[in-house]
Specification:
This protein is an alpha/beta fold. It contains six helices and five strands, in the order E-H-E-H-H-E-H-E-H-H-E. A five-stranded parallel beta sheet has the order 3-2-1-4-5, sandwiched between helices. Helix 1 crosses helix 3.
Length: 149
């Protein structure tokens, strides 16, 4: 088995997902691999967007489009660097988490996809599916599920 060259990890800005980012960063540091951090987002539209612009005025840019995801990615990148990851790239992707993670992993030729275990053992996760379980089934590459909860 060869060492991993490109690791992709997803984050949604939760502490649990940041723990997965930190674990992926430590592994990337050990392997000398590039770490790609991704965050999926759903853009606001219609009444939701109008309400945000009305409430926030000039500050509405902070919740419109990929801005919240970009902020999450900046925080994740900082945390990854602290853990020793030397080469870190961030990517905000529009869409639902599971297909977005799988597409991003393919696009960057990742050899390992890292996710946290949040939702894996919950009743809702067992009944409806969870990001870690769905990613493991659909990724088509090695998946590391990090114990974060």
């Amino acid at each position: 088995m060869t060492a991993y060259r490109t690791l992709l990890v997803g984050t949604d800005g939760s502490e649990s997902s940041f723990a997965a980012v930190e674990a992926a960063a430590r592994l990337a540091a050990v392997c000398g691999a590039e770490l790609v951090i991704t965050c999926a987002y759903a853009p606001m539209s219609g009444p939701e967007l109008a309400a945000a612009k009305d409430q926030l005025g000039a500050e509405a840019y902070q919740v419109v489009g990929s801005a919240p995801a970009e902020e999450t990615l900046r925080t994740a990148k900082d945390r990854a660097r602290v853990q020793g990851a030397a080469t870190v790239r961030t990517v905000a992707v529009e869409g639902e988490p599971v297909p977005s993670l799988v597409r991003a992993a393919r696009k960057c030729s990742a050899d390992l996809l890292v996710v946290g275990n949040r939702g894996l053992r919950s009743l809702a996760g067992r009944l409806l599916g969870s990001v870690p379980a769905d990613v493991a089934r659909k990724a088509g590459l090695d998946v590391l599920i990090v114990h974060t909860t």
